Structure formats: structure tokens, C-alpha cells
Amino acid sequence: MSTVFTLPRVNGADRRPATTSAKAPTDAGLMARMAEGDRAALQAFYTRHHVRVFRFVLRILGDRTQAEDVISDVFIDAWRQAGQFEGRSAVSTWLLAIARHKAYAVLRRRPTESIDDEKAAQIEDGCDTPDVTLEKRNRAAILRRCLEALPSTHREIVDLVYYHEKSVAEVARVFNIPENTVKTRLFYARKKLAGMLAGAGVDRDWL
Fold first, then answer.
1. What residues in the chain have per-residue pLDDT under 50?
2. SS3 content of the chain, % helix, strand, coil (to 5)
3. Helix (H), strand (E) counts: the chain
4. What's the CA angle centered on 100, arms 12 and 172, to 5 degrees?
5. Distance separating alpha carbons of residues 21 and 19, to the nearest angstrom
6. Fold of the 129-200 domain
7. How far apart are CA 176 and CA 144, in angstroms?
8. CB neighbourhood size of 206 (10 A)
9. Would you tell me which CATH number, out of the four given (3.50.50.60, 1.10.1740.10, 3.30.390.50, 2.60.40.10), belongs to the domain 24-116?
């Protein structure tokens, strides 16, 4: 991944010098330092979270360049809003909510394509090379293909629950929807995935 993040400046200079610590700080600790203008804290925060947030955004957008742009905006917002974080959810949940909002703003601005929940399900296989055939036999590749075939709202919930290990309550905060809605979408997502995986001959025990 070639994401490049440029640390923002505060009024032309940092309000606080970079600091180091032998013990890894908590997310809350990094946020507190970021609120005071500590750029080293922002760099540590970015290093800790950017890969998982990038993958989440990439699943939504399907475009690596746009995902990289969104990630830069997400962490700039985290820097600017660090002092406003109230701790009502995990920092990572708050960060994913920002990322999802920005990713969908990009989707809405796309001039030549609409948001199509089922678009991924319409990919044609064509004539496969031996390498592609081998890849399709790989369990991880099949799981990814099945996941991409889900409607976007279901796909994102599965991503958050299984890959980001978020609870139903945390997912509800990211989506800003009721917890029961999350549970319903997760139920139907798992049911559809189970059917696709069974058809592909893949073990479904992970669901």
C-alpha cells in the first residue's frame, strides 16, 4: 500500500514538541496529545490505524487512489477533532465512522456511476488463465469474492464485525442506525454468505 500521509501543521508550527515513550500509549492518550498539538502522537496514531481503515474504505470505494485520498482526509479530521472526542465509543469506532462518511461522500460525487449495491455480483469470469484458476481455488480468494457479492451495507457490517472485531453496538454507532437493524442485516448477510460458500465448496464454520 502506497498511502502517503502528510502531517498537518498548526498555525505554521507545532504547539508542542515531539515526544517519545517506552510504553505504547493508549488511543485515548494519543488523542489527548493530538488535541494539544503533538504531531508525534498523530504519527503514532496514523501508524496504528491506517492499514485497517484503508482496507475498510477500499471495500467501499473499490478504487485504491480514491481510498488513499480519503484516508488522508480521515486522519486530518482526526487531528482537528481530537479535542472534541467525548469517549462515548472506542476511538477506532469513531475513526471508522469518519471514514465511512467520507467514503460515501466520494461515491456520491462520482459523475459517471451510481452507488450499486449489487454491482460486484455482476463481474464476469471470462477465460481464466491457470493462475486465475488456482487463485479461485484458494479459500481466502473465494471468501473475498463472496463478500464482494453482498450488498454494500451488508458487506460493510460483516467487515466491521469479523475483520475489525466490532460489537453490534459499535457497528450501530458507525452506521448511525439502531442495533436491531445491525442484527437484522448481519443475519441476512451471514445467511447469504453461507449459501454462496456452500456452493463454492468452502467450509462455513467461520460464520
1. 2, 10-18, 20-21, 113-137, 206
2. 65, 0, 35
3. 9, 0
4. 125
5. 7
6. Arc Repressor Mutant, subunit A (1.10.10)
7. 26
8. 10
9. 1.10.1740.10
**Residues whose CB falls within 8 Å of the CB of residue 35, separated by 6 or more in sequence, listed in order:** 82, 83, 85
Distances in Å between the Cα of 9 and the Cα atoms of 120, 183, 206 are 40, 42, 44
CA atoms within 13 A on the CB side of 160: 31
Residue 45: Cβ within 10 Å count? 24
Question: What is the three-class DSSP state of 19?
Answer: coil
Q: Where in the chain is the domain with CATH 1.10.10.10?
A: 129-200
Q: What pTM value is reported for the model? A: 0.61
CATH 1.10.1740.10 in the chain: give the residue spans.
Answer: 24-116
pLDDT tens per residue across span 91-126: 999 999 999 999 999 988 876 544 444 443 443 444
Cα gap 114→107, rounded to integer Å: 8
